[in-house]
Write a structure and sequence with these properties.
165 residues, alpha+beta, Double Stranded RNA Binding Domain, Ribosomal Protein S5, domain 2, 2 domains, 5-stranded antiparallel sheet, disordered N terminus
Length: 165
């Protein structure tokens, strides 16, 4: 069963949540196997706020709920420039590297599953991405959010430096 068929999008008010992956873990006990599930969830409002969450439970729906609750605790603000990003950036986490590049309007989101979920949750409409190194979904999501948190606009840089544009 591919992750695309398992991917679900739900709206809770203004927050859109996307389940990136669901994994099953088995513990062998006296009566047989006891299964538990963990869910990697990306939550965003489509206007520059995005976060990831990880939930574990004995069934899938509670695992997703825990992941969403975890995501809301660590929300990140992202600098956008229209429907794209202000400049190219590389995010890193573990062995995963994610390159995000701005694109002209009409390009769409060119990204794989895990990175696509993060970018779309943040509200980015046009972007080019490439992942290098690890293809672990959790590390790719963390690397993508790392890249998005590094983004700065010209105005913000000028204000930080104390220079007039």
């Amino acid at each position: 069963m591919s992750t695309d068929s398992r991917e679900r999008d739900r709206d809770r008010g203004e927050w859109a949540e996307s389940v990136v992956s669901i994994r099953r873990c088995a513990a062998v006990v006296k009566g047989g196997r006891r299964f538990s599930f963990n869910a990697l969830v990306v939550v965003g409002n489509g206007r520059g706020q995005v976060a990831w969450g990880y939930g574990k439970a004995n069934e899938v729906p509670p695992a997703v709920e825990k992941g969403v609750k975890d995501a809301h605790k660590q929300m990140n603000r992202v600098q956008l420039k229209g429907g794209t990003i202000p400049h190219a950036v590389i995010g890193k986490f573990g062995a995963a590297r994610v390159l995000l590049m701005p694109a002209v309007p009409g390009t769409g989101v060119i990204a794989g599953g895990a990175v696509r979920a993060v970018v779309e949750a943040a509200g980015i409409k046009d972007v080019l991405t490439k992942s290098f190194g690890s293809n672990n979904k959790l590390n790719l999501v963390k690397a993508a959010i790392d890249a998005l948190t590094q983004l700065r606009t010209k105005e913000e840089i000028a204000r930080l430096r104390g220079v007039a544009l």
